[in-house]
Amino acid sequence: MNRVTTAKNKRIALFGLGGSGLATARALAAGGARITCWDDNPESVAKATAEGIVTGNLHEFDWSSADSLVLAPGVPLTHPKPHWVVDLARNAGVEVIGDVELFCRERRALAPTAPFIAITGTNGKSTTTALIAHILRTAGRDVQLGGNIGTPVLELEPPAANRYHVVECSSYQIDLSPSLDPSIGVLLNLSPDHLDRHGSMENYAAIKARLLQGADYAICGIDDEHSRRIAIGLEDGGSRIETISVSGAGKTLDLSAASSLRGDHNLQNALAAKAACKALGLGEDEILTGLNSFPGLAHRMQIVARCGRTVFVNDSKATNADAAAKSLSSFSSIHWIAGGLPKEGGIEALRPLFGRVEKAYLIGEAAPAFAATLGDTVPYEISGTLEAAVGHAAEGAAASDAGEPVVLLAPAAASFDQFRNFEKRGEAFVNAVMALKGIEASPTAQPGDDA
């Protein structure tokens, strides 16, 4: 765990006591800060108090004595309107920052040249973050992986000269990090997302751009207009920048042996990871070894098992048609498990990919609507439950004439009708697959595996 020594003896107000908020409170207290923590949820306050963290209602806090407000990334900073605690801090002239900013300050104090790779983008940032960390670890480096991907950045080991911090950054975290200064900054892509929290696409893009603007070396995807504009601006400003694209030169990266990196979206992820690791001094062979051995992330086009010729793929994270399109376009001879809580538009946008599907197995509330869209184009059954769908899809794939039939969970729907979240749905898929006879599990996929 990091101790935030740069905040020693400073008066810090902290708001938001979820996972990252608690980790930040612990790190601040361990570093000698004088903290007062609060949350709108009384249960979160009670949990922190029971742990020995100093809590107090920030409505009654003496803001004139404060040095900083540390805000959890899930708390509104600007839109749709600032949270009340943000207004109190700003009215008193108190800076509002987050956990990544605290990490940056510690790095500058402890080991300013320590490798720090920060990754953002609308899509693919978790895979790219994990891929960079995997390549570095495979090459024998001391790697700390965290941030928005799971482990809070202040729960990682502290910066050190030969320790590589690979950190996924959400737009919320960037917005709370005014001095974000990674060794290498990666921006993969931009598309409309979180606009309720940023007000407009222009604001959202400007926040994402900050990660590259503060980096010693920038890597930027240019396959969308917003990212391309950011790259042009950085080039015009004299920044050290490398651009990546899945067209043209990008096609020369051979991922045929990297089974977990199928599809153009993963080509972009791999190009970014290769560029970052090359800039860090790794050789081509080290990078290729890491790419080819990358196991993938749970619930994201995760190859979980084989049974004879059949491959079983868990893409439970594909909670809408856009996301499901990526996995459907990456395979053929698909026995497609789809459905759940329907989203606007259903699966109509996937019609151009229906030719890749041998049969669909429909589950959850969306099953009737999905069946109506499939119509006479794709054979289907309404399986009802995920467990039934897995069993029937496995039987259908085993009877297929295809060389490598695929049983693919790509729901194109939310999970909440039958599961608490997409992770639990993915775990249920893995458990059902592992219960089949003749299964050969992927070394990275075990029953109950959780991202």
UniProtKB/TrEMBL annotation:
SUPFAM superfamilies: MurCD N-terminal domain, MurD-like peptide ligases, catalytic domain, MurD-like peptide ligases, peptide-binding domain
Localization annotation: Cytoplasm
InterPro entries: Folylpolyglutamate_synth_CS, Mur-like_cat_sf, Mur_ligase_C_dom_sf, Mur_ligase_cen, MurD
MF (Gene Ontology): ATP binding; tetrahydrofolylpolyglutamate synthase activity; UDP-N-acetylmuramoylalanine-D-glutamate ligase activity
Gene Ontology biological-process entries: cell division; cell wall organization; peptidoglycan biosynthetic process; regulation of cell shape
Pathway it works in: Cell wall biogenesis; peptidoglycan biosynthesis
Residues of the signal peptide: 1-29
Domain Mur ligase central: 119-276
Residues that, per the record, bind ATP: 121-127
GO terms for cellular component: cytoplasm
Alphabetized UniProt keyword annotations: ATP-binding, Cell cycle, Cell division, Cell shape, Cell wall biogenesis/degradation, Cytoplasm, Ligase, Nucleotide-binding, Peptidoglycan synthesis, Signal
Catalyses which reaction(s): UDP-N-acetyl-alpha-D-muramoyl-L-alanine + D-glutamate + ATP = UDP-N-acetyl-alpha-D-muramoyl-L-alanyl-D-glutamate + ADP + phosphate + H(+)
Pfam families in UniProt: Mur_ligase_M (PF08245), MurD-like_N (PF21799)
Enzyme Commission identifier(s): 6.3.2.9
Entry similarity comment: Belongs to the MurCDEF family.
PANTHER family found in the cross-reference section: UDP-N-ACETYLMURAMOYLALANINE--D-GLUTAMATE LIGASE (PTHR43692)
Protein purpose: Cell wall formation. Catalyzes the addition of glutamate to the nucleotide precursor UDP-N-acetylmuramoyl-L-alanine (UMA).
Name of this protein: UDP-N-acetylmuramoylalanine--D-glutamate ligase
Gene: murD
